[in-house]
Amino acid sequence: MSADDEHKAIAKRYVDVVWNDGDVDAMDDVLTDQQVYHDPTGSGEEPLSEFESFVSNYHETFPDLHFEVERYLREADYVAFWGRITGTHEGPFMGIEPTGESVEIMGIHVVRISDGKIAERWANVDLFGLLQQIGYDPLA
């Protein structure tokens, strides 16, 4: 397998294990014990246990959460990928009680791979669109 294919396979496993399966027990096979995380609100170091809790909360809120990746691109130790994220709002989310509404948003991610695991993550998802789809208008 080429380095390009290996890096893309690691990113795909990350999507499958973390987002599609929500398998916190298998996350230590995919992510380093400590990662650097970046999103539009900031960045910092995040222990795996904290990320596992974050992922568990998302899967409790959206039990059928699914990330359908449209494309993976690799450059050096980085893999970028994007696609549609779907789910049903069945648990509290940011203080909003469950609505049963289906959501579909776009997500863009970049990961840096070190020694076969995800060591750094960037994420940008349409949180505003998600909130609107569950009936909350942040601008109101």
UniProtKB/TrEMBL annotation:
InterPro entries reported for this sequence: Cyclase_SnoaL-like, NTF2-like_dom_sf
GO biological process: polyketide metabolic process
Gene3D superfamilies cross-referenced by the UniProt entry: 3.10.450.50
PANTHER family reported for this sequence: ESTER CYCLASE, POLYKETIDE CYCLASE SNOAL-LIKE DOMAIN
Protein name: Ester cyclase
Annotated source species: Natrialba asiatica (strain ATCC 700177 / DSM 12278 / JCM 9576 / FERM P-10747 / NBRC 102637 / 172P1)
